[in-house]
Amino acid sequence: MKKVFGFVLSLAILFAAGYPVGAVSAKAAVVISGDTGDILYSKNADVRLPMASTTKIMTALVLLENCADLDGEIVTTGEMVTVEGSSMGLLEGDRVSYRALLYGMMLASGNDAANTVAIAIGGSIDKFVGMMNAKAAALNLKNTHFATPSGLDAEGHYTTAYELALITREALKNPDFALAASAKSATLCYGNPPYRRTVTNHNKLLFMYDDVVGVKTGFTKKSGRCLVSAAKKDGRYVIAVTLNDGNDWADHRFLLDAGLGAIEVCSYNQSGKTVNLPVIGGDREIAVCGVGAAEFSVPKGQSVTAVLCAPRFLYAPVAENTVVGSIEYYSLDRLIYKSNVTVKNVNARKGGKFDLFFQIFRIILGS
After folding, report:
1. Residue 208 within a domain
2. Per-residue pLDDT tens for 79-128?
3. What range does the domain containing 195 cover?
4. Is residue 232 part of a domain?
5. Same domain, 47 and 173
6. How far apart are CA 68 and CA 81, in angstroms?
């Protein structure tokens, strides 16, 4: 059951984007709110373009959703490691973990790592690419299609700035992806026999911009310079994408600054907030439930509605801290955050069936 929980939060400050379209040199660009997915700035954001190694954001996401043990090892084959372009240095016969492959893709942009993941997880590159496209369809992306796991140029390999931002937003929900995407360097162990070596992230923004938390660079002659970045500051969270941009480092600093300035934080310390729910068969008729804290960012001037999602009544006994519902926060009719509603301990009380039926009837009659 859902019902409005009694408040609509109207943000007082007006939305302050309005960046000039020509402010960045990219062929296509977008900035979105990482929490809500709202577009804060766009330039040709729905134009289909090649995306080079930013493809590996989806490759990593599919890996993480289909690998039960990131520390499990595989032995590479010639087919896995024979690929042109950037590399993490894999050779045929190397022992390497999926976690090392993840970091090899995200930091060193290893095409060998991407192909190894594809064959190990999908059984073949073509089957893994099919998994990537299935994930794009699940995310309701209409202008994205993958032909390679690495991002090397191929017919039918494209996305848009906006849809790449949405892929990144989804990927950053995964803590293993977020950790890899934000790492400036990593010490990995692989080889035949495995030995330790250090890889450094190609994403210079991690070293240039204090609030950046990732995520991926890319380049081919056809695609030009491609860059996806994300920044978090004081509870605010934005994602920026540029495709075919010869001045991407400077453009992203501008876009991230402007994006962070166009949103503000909604923070609700609900420690004193309670919800009362009727209880059937309990030692008290009303259960007192506590509401969890919530913090997220939205575009300035955009309203937020809180909705209680909870049953009409509870059955005793109910253990302390049992999650019995949630408060869902919506902006523009989209769910952007959810916090739990937990109940304080309610013991069962002695009573016959008639007593229980009387309680239920009284609750229904009074609703």
Report:
1. yes
2. 999 999 999 999 999 999 999 999 999 999 999 999 999 999 999 999 99
3. 21-261
4. yes
5. yes
6. 23
Mean pLDDT of the chain: 88
In this predicted model, which residue has the larger pLDDT, 304 or 244? 244
pLDDT of residue 83: 96
Residues with active-site annotation: 53, 56, 109
Q: Is the pLDDT of residue 6 over 50?
A: no
How far is CA 91 from each of CA 79, 94, 191, rounded to the nearest angstrom?
Answer: 10, 6, 7
Domain containing residue 346: CATH number: 2.60.410.10
Burial (CB < 10 A; 0-12, 13-18, 19+), residue 1, is: exposed
Total domains present in the chain: 2
Pairing of strands 314-315, 274-280: parallel
Q: Are 263 and 299 in contact (CB under 8 A)?
A: yes
Greatest CA separation for the chain: 78
Q: Is residue 15 part of a domain?
A: no
Residue 14 lies in a domain: no
| pLDDT value, residue 270 | 66
